[in-house]
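Mods, move this if it's the wrong board.
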Amino acid sequence: MTRIGIIGNEASKFTVETREKAKIIIKELLKEPCILVSGGCHLGGVDIWAEEEAIALHRLKTIYRPQKLTWEGGYKQRNIQIARASDIVHVIVVKSYPPDYQGMKFKFCYHCNSEDHVKSGACWTAKYAEKHFNKKTKWHIIE
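Not the wrong board. Structure tokens:
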């Protein structure tokens, strides 16, 4: 059974409209029998919406939560687990910050050197999956 990694921006980077677009993409990705692989982000967003959809569709899931909320010993190791376990990694990110976004803003995603979407650690994970595990990856950029 295909193990589909679904990762992306945290909840605060979405508007109501972009959140609904992300959920449509997630539902489409999980429509066929598969195993969801994701990261259980404590900030909500794509990881949690993917988990919710997997439950609704009765899909198996493997969720790798970070052991600590730090890069080393936490997010980095969790992201490597996602990269290793997925047959394909789907990155769901928004093109731009919502008008009311209060967090840190960057002019580009420094994980993948792209200006076509908002920064996401999901990009680091997908790039790692490509480079170290020769995995397929796909970006879904929501406007």
